[in-house]
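Supplementary Methods, section 5.1.

A reviewer requested that the exact input to the structure prediction be made available. We therefore reproduce it here, unchanged from the version used in the analyses.
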Amino acid sequence: MPPRSTGVRGVTTLDLITIDATAMADKEFDQEFVEYIVRGIVNNPDDVRTERIVDERGVLITLHINPEDMGYVIGRQGQTARAVRTLLKIVGAKENARVNLKIYEPEGSRRPRREDDMGGSNDFGGSDDTSVDDLGI
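The structure derived from this sequence is encoded token-by-token as follows.
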């Protein structure tokens, strides 16, 4: 029976299971797993790198990517990042480890927010309250 395609740029289920064993010698499975998944998402896969820190609270994997690829990794409303974190927690659970993912964001890399996203208006059509002042109560 041939391996099933996952729908991600020709990646098969078998490909997800068989991660390069030589790379595993230098890195832990969870770290290599994150790099593998993210490289399939971004436009600059050579810029993907991770740092792995283990302390008493568990494992922290910090993901460094090209700033142009930040939107691909985070996704709409953070859905892609949430999905990667969920998969990573499953990988960690198999090893009885708490694994967290931090996406490194360089200082000043965020675009300025638009004024209508700043919370300046409310759900009632803006902050114009002149009609309330005219009630004369």
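The chain has six helices and five strands. These observations are discussed further in the main text.
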